[in-house]
Design goal:
Distance between the termini of chain B: 63 Å
Distance between the termini of chain A: 38 Å
Strand content of chain A: under 5%
Shape of chain A: globular
Low-confidence stretches of chain A: 349-358
Order of helices and strands of chain A: HHHHHHHEEEHHHHEHHHHH
Number of helices of chain A: 16
CATH superfamily of the largest domain in chain B: P-loop containing nucleotide triphosphate hydrolases
Low-confidence stretches of chain B: 276-280
Helix content of chain A: over 70%
Oligomer: heterodimer
CATH architecture of the largest domain in chain B: 3-Layer(aba) Sandwich
Structural class of chain A: mainly alpha
CATH topology of chain A: ABC transporter involved in vitamin B12 uptake, BtuC
Largest sheet of chain A: 2 strands, antiparallel
Number of helices of chain B: 12
CATH class of chain A: Mainly Alpha
Mean pLDDT of chain A: 89
Radius of gyration of chain A: 21 Å
Strand order of the largest sheet of chain A: 1-4
Structural class of chain B: alpha/beta
């Protein structure tokens, strides 16, 4: 059990709370930097996808986990980012500029979607964002001069002012860099007044307002930031696949994104990463286990959907706090061994205000 | 508006459809006093609170408030500006940020004093760092004042009711208000906690010099701390004066206990009730 004895206010706002954090996150970064030499091309590509989805997950986590606004159309922002990146890169714009435009345009669309969020809440907001997803997907399919329609469009390799990133390893490092920067930005936001204002809106709008928080501003801000991160992820996604078509940004993608943060653990930055790892590795695990299962089960169509559904239901039932919540329990168990009690994380079963149908 | 008054409500009325929740209410809150609104349930006390914190807009009437830059019409302000003007409030059914620690709740109370925008927050610049440390120093002063040291890092969701009540008051104090609105500060508290609450309200008035406007049912607390009391019933003002004066006002007594006529009319109604006779 670690007791942090605070002697200074600065200690309270540090990102790394104690030496353990420095050591473990430092080691993680070292391992991630060494991955291209440890694993082959295939696993490197999968890890790149994990990073890309983590960025989108961070965005959705900010919106759903920290501001309490659920979006069922987040793939639309991913798509806006991807198509902007494709159009601008193919027009010859260098990668950083195109990325900035992709993020900016996504943020703009996010702001637009944030406007109805000022009026509608909960399930109605879900429907509003869901319809946005459909509209944007339709635009991708119909606006053929820019998007190439249903036939899809190709995108050139990222070009950093003349230095073209040809190999998967180079692109992996680009994704890693952007992920680290995005994570630090979110962590900074969460330890500053803006982030606290978002959390306040999530827990009680009325008292947030009476504390001087401008609800309209912070809600649209949250939507914009979330969409910008999804746009960045979309841009990287487009470069990674080198080919994009409207059906990659449909409702299933939106649901995948939402699933990702719910399984990762809503309301924690770690959750975005754990969820992304889950989302990318699950199909791999299912594919690997297919060979070891009896043919009738292993070769049955829809196995993946079934497993996904079962896992999601299991999480909602047994671990609403997601993978990160489970990890917290395991960590507490180890720290307190042998004094861990079964009910330690049990909350009083009262009908919490923030659980109310909003 | 009188030179020594901080807030002045003039002819306030609110109508929700056919219900006239507040009917032509006027009062002035003087600088540095504890002003209490009392009245039976549904008298319109909380509605008056919500008018001052701009959750509702009055159908008629005006509220004037002496802000930092001279007096202004409160009814013309958007709801989120009220805190910045120096009005902080608590809620009848505690509205804390449940999934945040006590310290974070208090820091949210510092929102009107933030000095950084989005980009400075994203980059956590030196200025953001400086403001954060300053905010913590201020929050710590309030923690010391209300004796919340023990709960500093506890999550609100796990706190008992009485402590939450204090945390909510602490959060309001963190905004450094000039007028503190307390909506039933003693509801749900036991006798001992209510006594503590009385001390704190007196301390807030005497040591911090903050004017307090509160809604309260517990008459012992009201008479202990209030300088002036306004009694309301059915949206109207019944009486205004010192606690003693208001308690002895025949109109107030009638509103709380009913008049002798009421009781006798009830008696007749029961004995002559045709339903009762029919049953017998």
């Amino acid at each position: 059990m670690r007791f942090i004895f605070k002697t200074d206010y600065a200690q309270d706002i540090k990102l790394a709370r104690h030496g353990g954090h420095l050591f473990w996150y430092g080691s993680l970064l070292l391992v991630l930097a060494a991955v291209p030499w440890l694993f082959d091309e295939y696993w490197l590509a999968q890890l790149t996808f994990v990073l890309i989805y983590s960025i989108a997950g961070l965005g959705l986590m900010l919106l759903a986990g920290f501001t309490g606004l659920f979006s069922l159309g987040h793939a639309a922002f991913l798509g806006v980012g991807a198509y902007t990146q494709a159009a601008l890169t193919n027009a010859g714009l260098p990668f950083p500029l195109a990325l900035a435009c992709a993020a900016g345009l996504s943020a703009g669309v996010g702001w637009l979607v944030g406007l109805p969020a000022l009026r509608v809440k909960g399930i109605y907001l879900g429907i509003a964002t869901l319809s946005l997803g459909f509209i944007v997907e339709e635009v991708f399919a119909r606006w053929e001069s820019v998007t190439g329609g249903n036939a899809g469009t190709h995108i050139q390799k990222p070009d950093l002012f003349g230095w073209v990133l040809e190999s998967g390893t180079q692109f992996y490092f680009l994704c890693l860099l952007i992920t680290v920067v995005a994570t630090l930005a979110i962590l900074n936001l969460l330890r500053s007044p803006t982030g606290r204002a978002l959390v306040a809106i999530r827990d009680s709008e009325i008292s947030a307002q009476s504390m001087g928080i401008h609800l309209a501003y912070y809600k649209t801000l949250s939507f914009s930031l979330s969409a910008a991160l999804a746009g960045i992820a979309g841009a990287l996604y487009a470069h990674k696949l080198q080919f994009i078509s409207p059906d990659q940004f449909n409702i299933l993608q939106s649901i995948d994104l939402l699933l990702m943060i719910v399984i990762g653990g809503v309301g924690s930055v770690h959750g975005a990463f754990l969820g992304a790892i889950f989302l990318i590795s699950m199909p791999q695990v299912i594919a690997l286990s297919k060979d070891h299962l009896p043919a009738a089960v292993g070769q049955a169509p829809g196995l993946q959907g079934l497993v996904y559904g079962v896992v999601l239901i299991a999480f909602v039932l047994f671990e609403p706090q997601g993978l990160y919540g489970r990890w917290l329990k395991i960590r507490t168990y180890l720290q307190m061994f042998p004094f861990y009690r079964k009910g330690m994380f049990k909350r009083q079963k009262s009908f919490q205000k923030s659980d109310r149908l909003k | 508006m009188n030179p020594d008054s901080l807030l002045s409500a003039r002819n306030l009325s609110v109508r929700f459809g056919g219900v006239l929740a507040v009917n032509d209410v006027s009062f002035e809150v003087r600088q540095g006093e504890v002003f209490t609104l009392i009245g039976p349930n549904g008298a319109g006390k909380t509605t008056v609170f919500n008018l001052i914190s701009r959750i509702y807009t009055p159908t008629a009437g005006e509220i004037e408030f002496k802000g930092p830059d001279g007096s202004l019409s409160l009814t013309a302000q958007p709801p989120q500006s009220v805190a910045g003007l120096g009005i902080a409030r608590t809620f009848q059914n505690i509205e804390l940020f449940e999934h945040a620690s006590v310290l974070n709740n208090l820091l949210i109370g510092r929102h009107t004093h933030r000095r950084t925008g989005l980009w400075q927050d994203l980059l956590f610049t030196a200025r953001a760092r400086e403001t954060e440390i300053l905010a913590r120093e201020k929050a710590e002063e309030v923690i010391d004042f209300l004796g919340l040291q023990h709960y500093r890092d506890t999550f609100v969701a796990g706190l008992p009711y009485g402590v939450r009540k204090v945390v909510e008051m602490a959060r309001a104090l963190c905004t450094e208000p000039r007028l503190l609105l307390l909506d039933e500060p003693s509801s749900g508290l036991n006798v001992e906690e209510t006594e503590d609450m009385a001390f704190w309200i007196q301390d807030i008035k005497n040591e911090l010099g903050i004017t307090v406007l509160m809604v309260e049912h517990d008459m012992s607390l009201v008479s202990k701390v209030s300088d002036r009391v306004l009694a309301m019933n059915q949206g109207q003002v019944l009486a205004l004066g010192t606690p003693r004066e208001v308690q002895q006002d025949p109109g107030v007594v009638e509103a709380y206990l009913g008049s002798i006529d009421d009781v006798s009319s009830l008696r007749r109604a029961t004995s002559q009730s045709p339903v009762r006779e029919g049953q017998v």
